[in-house]
Design a protein that fits this description.
Blueprint lengths: L1 H21 L11 H8 L1 H4 L20 H10 L8 H4 L2 H12 L5
Helix pairs in contact: 2-6, 4-6
Bound molecules: heme C.
């Protein structure tokens, strides 16, 4: 459990330090694709395939939420999921992430 936390924290720290160097921490650069936005901001909990489940994150490959519901969840967060609107930077970026996570669905 402690080890898992350390792993999560170091991934988060790594993500932050990398992103500070190249300025691509988040969606402020509007040229980022939904995939890039997802990889920069979501994989530490959801994993690149959506199945990681860190911090109790929902398996996105099994998600059945509508676009509006996903968007709402991403903007406002829920329980252990933090609100991501500010990090993603714009409505358009949130929309591209919503479209991207649908490609991770397996059902
Ligand atoms: C700190 C960990 C964390 C990060 C970072 C994170 N999430 Fe989550 N996410 C969660 C948790 C935990 C839940 C489950 C919330 C609940 O239902 O209690 C969740 C739930 C979701 C859901 C709802 C899925 C469903 O079917 O119920 C979506 C959609 C989602 N996350 C998308 C994203 C996206 C897109 C990003 C990046 C912009 C992201 N998350 C970043 C932890 C995270």
């Amino acid at each position: 459990m402690v080890l898992k936390l350390i792993v999560i924290l170091s991934i988060a720290a790594l993500t932050l330090s990398c992103s500070n160097q190249n300025g691509q921490a988040n969606g402020n650069n509007s040229s980022l694709s939904g995939k890039e936005l997802y990889e920069n901001n979501c994989t530490q909990c959801h994993g690149s395939d959506g199945k990681l489940g860190n911090s109790g994150a929902t398996d996105l490959s099994m998600s059945v939420l509508s676009d509006d519901e996903s968007k709402n969840r991403i903007k406002n967060g829920l329980n252990a999921m933090p609100p991501m609107a500010e990090l993603l930077g714009s409505e358009a970026n949130i929309d591209s992430v919503v479209q991207y996570i649908k490609t991770l669905r397996t059902k």
